[in-house]
């Protein structure tokens, strides 16, 4: 027991400081966490045939391009609705080149988002590294306004019923802790420690000195006036305020004679909280709101993001967008191939792919509508 008290005392004192008092006792008031719903098994990565095809397509297109350097189609193709035949010479090479160009432009565009990481004399700097300060500022502003703010937190706490849910277990923990003699002794000694610090502080001494000097002792009458004259006769002519300050310096307050009163309040506290649960909930919610409003979320987020180096910022963004960026990158090859067909047969390609795109859109819209009606 003595070792615990010694470990929780402030330097040079026999009393527990507030920080050490919290370190020792605060965890006893916090109720044990309720077991949450068991998390489901981690989602397994499924085989993605579409992505595999898209990743293989640029390589296949490159092989086709190399083959077309040695061999390509030739001749013509007669279409019923065309007066002149359509020439096939160099078709494979043209489609392969446009496919590679489409993939290459998307690849370079995505790489230019992050590279060069450092500003270079001719190549400049990637879009995201160059805009790191602006991105950090905008993200900090958006998070503080739209994600972490007092209104949203208050709404979430009320919807989840977090305070009500933990109130019973909190009261149980509080009853057990308040009943401990060690807790009550630590609390009493901490109060003594800070009361003595207050009466010996410069601010309190100055206030007390000003109060006593402003008091009209000469206007006292009757017994008080006689006692004041006797005091001055015995103690000399020094000001009463100075003598009071000397007395404050030499005295040490003790709350031992108030221990019974303190224990009575501690005994009644859990019952009072249970009978005033609405008031306690409002106090807790207002305290949470007060703390959130005093924390500058925008500055915290902005400073942390500004402290990221370019490599870490790139990893952060790629962690959440790499799949989408891969799709964009490899779809460039397909779009390039389609572009080559548009160059070869503009009108026919426009009609064919336009009809295919419209049909795909209608099917997607129908599926979405059916999903929403369920």
Can you give a write-up of this model?
There is one protein chain. By secondary structure, the protein is mostly helical. It folds into 2 domains: 51-129 and 321-359, no CATH class; 151-301, no CATH class. The protein is 74% helix and 1% strand. It has 17 helices and 2 strands. It has a two-stranded antiparallel ribbon with strand order 1-2. Strand 1 (76-77) and strand 2 (86-87) form a beta hairpin. Helix 13 (259-275) crosses helix 14 (277-294) and helix 16 crosses helix 17 (346-373). The chain is elongated, with a radius of gyration of 40 Å. It starts with a helix and ends with a helix.
How is this structure best summarized?
With 374 residues, the protein is an all-alpha fold. The chain has helices spanning 2-7, 18-29, 49-70, 91-114, 127-130, 132-147, 150-160, 162-178, 181-199, 202-213, 222-235, 240-250, 259-275, 277-294, 297-306, 310-344, 346-373; strands at residues 76-77, 86-87.
* Helical residue percent band: over 70%
- For the secondary structure, the number of strands is 2
**N-to-C order of helices and strands:** HHHEEHHHHHHHHHHHHHH
* Shape assignment: elongated
**Uncertain segments:** 1-14, 38-45
Q: Pairing-aware structural class of the strands and helices?
A: mainly alpha
Estimate the strand proportion: under 5%
Mean pLDDT: 77
Described by strand count, sense and barrel closure, the largest sheet is:
2 strands, antiparallel
- The tally of structural domains comes to 2
Please give the count of helices.
17
Gyration radius, in Å: 40 Å
Distance between the termini: 65 Å
Numbering strands along the chain, what is their spatial order in the largest sheet? Answer: 1-2
Family: Belongs to the UPF0754 family.
Subcellular location: Endomembrane system
Pfam families: DUF445
Main location: membrane
